[in-house]
């Protein structure tokens, strides 16, 4: 099971945290790969598309874990919302392997 926390304050996104392995399939875990791509692509896109220096992002990575928080909140809303759309789409398809939570920060 992968737990995903999306950090918001009112309508502003501040980051996200993903923890755990999807364990969808031992042979071909397309779900785990999809979650990994979304989580890694989000900070990369913030850096490249929004031209935000990584020093403004607090990123923590481990086995089955990625947490990203950002200081320059207004500049990254579309990218983090895109992450949310992708996660929600995967949740609809693989409901028993993903939980999504929203945390007020």
Q: What features would you describe in this structure?
A:
The protein is of the alpha+beta class. It has 2 helices and 5 strands, in the order E-E-H-E-E-H-E. The protein has helices at residues 30-49, 77-93; strands at residues 2-9, 12-19, 57-62, 65-70, 98-104. It has a 5-stranded mixed beta sheet with strand order 3-4-2-1-5, covered by helices on one side. The chain is globular. The model has no long low-confidence stretch (mean pLDDT 92).
The strand order across the widest sheet is 3-4-2-1-5
**Sheet of most strands:** 5 strands, mixed
The whole-number mean of residue pLDDT values reads 92
Look at the helices and sheets and give the structural class: alpha+beta
Number of strands: 5
Outline the low-pLDDT stretches.
none
> What portion of the residues fall into strands of 2 or more residues?
25-35%
* Shape label: globular
User: Looking at the chains present, what oligomeric state does this protein adopt?
Assistant: single chain
Query: Between the first and last Cα atoms, what is the distance in angstroms?
Result: 24 Å
Helical content (DSSP H or I, runs of 4+): 25-40%
Instruction: Work out the helix count.
Output: 2
Radius of gyration: 13 Å
Order of helices and strands: EEHEEHE
């Amino acid at each position: 099971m992968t737990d995903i926390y999306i950090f918001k304050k009112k309508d502003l996104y501040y980051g996200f945290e993903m923890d755990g392995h999807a364990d969808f399939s031992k042979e071909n875990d397309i779900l785990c790969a999809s979650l990994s791509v979304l989580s890694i692509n989000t900070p990369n896109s913030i850096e490249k598309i929004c031209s935000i220096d990584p020093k403004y992002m607090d990123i923590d990575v481990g086995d089955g874990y990625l947490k990203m928080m950002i200081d320059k909140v207004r500049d990254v809303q579309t990218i983090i919302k895109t992450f949310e759309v992708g996660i929600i789409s995967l949740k609809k398809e693989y409901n028993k392997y993903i939980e999504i939570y929203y945390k007020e920060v």
